[in-house]
Amino acid sequence: MDNKLNAEDKIKEILEKMRPYLNMDGGDAQFIKYEDNYVYIKMTGACSNCAFQDNTVNEGLLEIFKSEVPEIKGIINVDL
Q: Most buried in the list 5, 35, 61, 70, measured by CB within 10 Å?
């Protein structure tokens, strides 16, 4: 459980660092949860309808998250 909390805190910290870059294009990402080595987020603002949303999630955010939290298997973009 300790490991999960540490990973979750690190994920939230990384997302906060990435937020200004997402905001520059009018978008954002909301952390939902970290479960079974998957990060659940919701893309919002301009990012929610962007044609490059999958690239941002899978090639941008995922690579950054994995560099800091190697056990992450993927990101799931949820639609709430």
A: 61
CATH code for position 36? 3.30.300.130
What stretches in the chain show pLDDT beneath 50? Answer: 1
| Residue 17 Cα distances to 2, 5, 14, 49, 80, angstroms | 23, 18, 5, 22, 23
What is this structure's pTM? 0.86
> In sequence order, which residues have a C-beta less than 8 Å from that of residue 16 and are 6 or more positions away?
none
* Spatial contact of 71 and 39, defined as CB atoms under 8 Å apart: no
Question: What is the rounded distance in angstroms from the CA atom of residue 68 to the CA atom of residue 61?
Answer: 11
